[in-house]
Amino acid sequence: MSNEINHPSLENLEYVPYIDEAGQLPEQFQGKIGVYAIFDHNKSLQFVGYSRDVYLSLKQHLVRQPQQCYWVKVATIERPSRSVLESIENNWIQEHGSVPGGNGDSKEQWTQAINVKNLMTSEEQVIYQNPVNDELAQMKILKNVARRVETEILQVLEARGLQIQLRFNPKLKEEGLLDLK
Fold first, then answer.
1. Among 3.40.1440.10, 3.60.20.20, 3.40.50.720, 3.40.350.10, what is the CATH number of 16-110?
2. How many other C-beta atoms can be found within 10 angstroms of the C-beta atom of residue 105?
């Protein structure tokens, strides 16, 4: 645990597997306020963030960036304080020596819903952009693309051994967005 006075060093925290042997995410962070650092398979820092519920945030990042989320380091605090959380986040980035990609150029991919329009096949794009299609037809195409991308993400996570159920927001699929419910 940390408080306003004692910011934990990123280096001194233990790596926690993103998905454990039982196929679960680190449940000890459920409902916990804290700062977290996400690492890839090679333990290379990818993203630093903070949250009022670290577990839920880790789950979101996993579906948005499944190839980048293998290890995590977390520091929790008792009382929500944006300034304390931001301070720890900034200290960790400084300690790392450079801004991780997830906090720089690819921040949107880590922090925003997946926009499936960017993931359409060329055939899907042609159908979507066909002037004959009305809004309803386009919405149906977006929904189908979202379902395809969702299936691909779930297959990747299943191959990694994930055992928890993930539910995507069905309303967002109609807008061409994928995010957990």
1. 3.40.1440.10
2. 9
Residues 6+ away with beta carbon under 8 Å from 26: 16, 17, 18, 20, 55, 58, 72, 74
Q: Where are the domains of the chain?
A: 16-110, 114-178
In this structure, what DSSP letter does residue 29 have? Answer: G
Q: What is the pLDDT of residues 21-36, one digit of tens each?
A: 999 999 999 999 999 9
Token pair of 85, please?
Answer: 């959380």
Query: Which parts of the chain register pLDDT below 50?
Result: 1-5
Angle, alpha carbons 179-100-25 (nearest 5°): 45
Location of structure tokens 């995010």: 179
Q: Measured in whole angstroms, how far is the alpha carbon of residue 133 from the centre of its chain?
A: 33
Predicted TM-score (pTM) above 0.85: yes
**Is 163 in contact with 23 (CB distance < 8 Å)?**
yes
